[in-house]
Amino acid sequence: MSNGKTHYLLLITHYFSIALIIVAYLVVGILYAVKTPPWQVPDEPAHYNYIKYLAENYRFPVLQMGDYPHNYLEEIKDKKFPPEMSIEPLRYEFHQPPLYYILAAVVYKLFAGRLLPLRLLSVLLGCCLLWVTYHIAKEIFPGDETLALGTTAFVAFVPMHIAITAAVNNDTLAELILAGILWMLVRYVKTSPPGLGGTEGGRAEGIGRFVGLGVLMGLGLLTKITTLVAIPLALVAVIVKGIWLEQDQKSNFAQRYLFPVTCFLFLTCLLTLPWFVRNASVYGGLDIFGLQRHDAIVVGQPRTAEWLAQLGATKFAQDFILTTFRSFWAQFGWMGILVDQRIYLILALFCAVVGLGLALFFATNYTNFTNLSPQKRMALGLLALSALLTLLSYLWYNLKFVQHQGRYLFPALVPLGLAFALGLREILARDKAKAVALLFLTGALILAAKGLVTGDFNKLSILLLGGAAAVFGIKALLPERYDDLVFALPYLGLFGLDLICLFRFIVPHFQ
To answer: For residues 184 and 136, what is the distance between their CA atoms, to the nearest angstrom?
Structure first.
């Protein structure tokens, strides 16, 4: 009876914790949606114009020459979108797939085209994303509530992600669908059904799973092209499970590989074919995504080749890395609102520490990692592959256009959140915390000694290193019962940073 009560209380605590994270995200998301002035999120006017066109004309728009008036866009951004300058000419998102805009058009109609309800639709989708994120982490590590909550909190409280999910765009719906696909694939590789060649129930279960996967993949491609990474992910899951995990040796090649791949690809094609045929007829040739038309009309958008020629490879790479880092965490408006340099330094230091923790996790736990079940290793591999494919697509996009915007990495936020939680917990372990405290203290002393010799004290760096040494030193001395509380503090810090970014930088910028 006592064990039953304990389990029940733990269950209540777990669901209360995830509900608290979602409510906190909801509060901050609404604040961002309300307090951010109209159109002061990248591409929001163009997304809004797509919704407006669809709601008022009952047909999908066609991207045409002139829909990207570069000089006008730069002027209206510089003047902070004054009421006398219309956003009507900004139509360069007209090539996007239709699913988000169909949903948003319903909201547009219900609320007479007001901007705030459309922003709140994205916030609501963000809440759903957090729920799916939590269950992905729980699926991989079923007995590790702390890790699941940390992964969810990371996705919830990255400041720039809050800003994007509180704006009018198709990004959040695409992230939600991609997370749903990841969840399905993780469950697929973690289960060992009787096999497609086994019992009748096993075959039905396999068919249902791949039907759902095909539907989600189709809906993803009808939302945003970033979900295209789901296709190679699903193919890898089927192939590797067939080779590595499948225990039913009676199943043949068709049952093990051909049936599942054909099933989800067929449904994906069935759902997306009408849209792709429409695009081919409208834009010509094989331009089924409208990307060739988009590339042709964005005259004036900076090109990578031009910047490379002007800046050189070294300076270009430095700008790329620095801007990507800043805009992943906190670079608001149309990339024009930077936060305090000290905040970026703290974030960079924190990322380095967590990255060290992640490296130590795999180094010191290699034996334990290899002892994990093949299903669990496969699930972690799928998340890593998802992040890699998103990174490669980001790099590919920047080969043509200068788009050093870290928000394009948000489709990988779920695996990044899990990696962050793993690294953070590892580096906060007592033995690691002692070593890190000594490392930071040594760095602070070296900088202080250098300052005494040269007379040039880098006070900020010394303070940061000394503060980090104190934090990790205190953690090493605390009893284990405080481990979960200390683990939660960085996420509470991110929540506080969300409010600081909004009320200290975004709102004052427009006043």
So the answer is: 9
